[in-house]
Specification:
This protein is an alpha/beta fold. It contains 14 helices and 13 strands. The two termini are 18 Å apart.
Length: 388
């Protein structure tokens, strides 16, 4: 099939989850035999060239994703030029350009939803909608969902209740299990001593990623006299300076700064524990419904790392406590430190890490994600052709 993928507010290539997701889905669908063109914002070196996907630079006006809808005519032009049979749009409240293009050229409309469509109580969107009485934001979101032939999401609970379940593919993100594996090699921008147990965090350093919780856990371990558990934190973001300040005076903590995504597999292979210390209270939407399909966890698992994470319903579905990792009570201020101390047991780490790798291969690879998406698109397209 000829597929146009509209993700115009995502920079590709770039070292963040959205970019990784868009790249993996576009290339994964192309590997299944589809002709794929992707509309994206250019990364620092422009859009990729060559390879199985046709990458087209089409950033939102002035780089402002709230103005995405102004690209409707351009998206329709590319859909017609490709003779697209399927248009996939990466959802945003102020988007809709991909769904409009699909409707105007008779293509199957697929909406990829990674953030809540429903209003979170007390959110700014809800406040604005209520002030305007006619609730234009809610109406537009509802229109996008109603006009999508297929919705792809990690959690059906972030969709409006009127969306028919048969039009929804609920599926997780994934990891590139060929690149992320326990023997991955490459340059490592940190040192480790023999006998150390190295915990790794990879993320965007936003408050709800909880990087400072890992730093605090190391501090607690030092206060207990535990010196062999060390940590490396990879990435950048608004919480990086706070995490660095929290680490002042603590031995065994390394900050690498941002790294290209291609450098991450070797870093994970050199570590012993993957840490995902999410802080739901720092993000009202997550506290309402943990809708994320956390890329870091899938990559930890693919790398054969046991995962340390808070005990949250969604995460417990991915990482089974005592099987692929250890989950701690997020209300316990010493929960992460105690979990890391338990994972200082090498035999336990080996058992959990091997199981994590197996589970990633079976359920949480980008390959399995794209195969499920391919099947759902084919099924929806058959139903779409019968309706038209």
């Amino acid at each position: 099939m000829r597929i146009l993928y509209s993700a115009i507010d995502q920079a590709v290539p770039a070292a963040h989850g959205g970019s990784v997701h868009v790249t993996a889905v576009a290339e994964g669908l192309a590997s299944l035999g589809h002709e794929v063109a992707a509309l994206v914002s250019p990364g620092t070196a422009g859009v990729p060239s060559g390879g199985p996907v046709t990458w087209i630079a089409l950033p939102p006006p002035f780089g402002n994703r709230r103005l995405r809808l102004m690209r409707s005519r351009a998206v329709l032009h590319h859909a017609k030029a490709l003779h697209a049979e399927v248009v996939i749009e990466r959802y945003y409240n102020f988007g809709g350009e991909g769904i409009l293009a699909a409707r105007r050229c008779g293509a199957l409309a697929v909406l990829e939803v990674n953030a809540p469509v429903v209003d979170v109580p007390g959110s700014r969107k809800q406040w604005v909608d209520n002030m305007m009485l006619v609730q234009p934001l809610r109406r537009w979101r509802d229109w996008q969902c109603a006009n999508a032939d297929l919705i792809v999401t990690p959690s059906i609970r972030i969709l409006p209740p009127h969306v028919p379940p048969q039009r929804v593919l609920q599926t997780e993100w994934g990891a590139d299990t060929d690149r992320f594996h326990p023997e991955a090699s490459g340059a490592i921008p940190f040192a480790r001593k023999d006998g150390d147990v190295l915990a790794v965090f990879v993320g965007a350093f936003r408050a709800w990623h909880g990087a400072t919780h890992l730093v605090e856990a190391i501090r607690q371990l030092r206060e207990r006299g535990q010196s062999t558990i060390t940590a490396v934190l990879i990435g950048e973001g608004p919480e990086l300076s706070r995490a660095r300040r929290a680490a002042d005076g603590l031995a065994g903590i390394t900050f690498t700064g941002p790294l290209p995504h291609t450098a991450v597999p070797a870093c994970l292979a050199a570590a012993d524990i993957g840490v995902a210390p999410f802080d739901l209270q720092a993000h009202p939407a997550l506290a309402h419904e943990f809708h994320w399909s956390p890329l870091k966890i899938f990559e930890y698992m693919a790398s054969g790392l046991p995962v340390a994470a808070p005990r949250i319903e969604r995460l417990a579905h991915v990482v089974r406590d005592g099987q692929e990792g250890l989950l701690y009570d997020p209300a316990d201020p010493r929960g992460l430190a105690s979990t890391l101390e338990r994972l200082s047991d090498g035999a336990l780490r080996a058992r959990l890490g091997a199981a994590a790798r197996t589970r990633a291969l079976e359920l949480f690879s980008w390959k399995s994600h794209c195969q499920a998406l391919d099947l759902a698109i084919r099924t929806a397209r058959n139903a779409h052709s019968h309706r038209h």
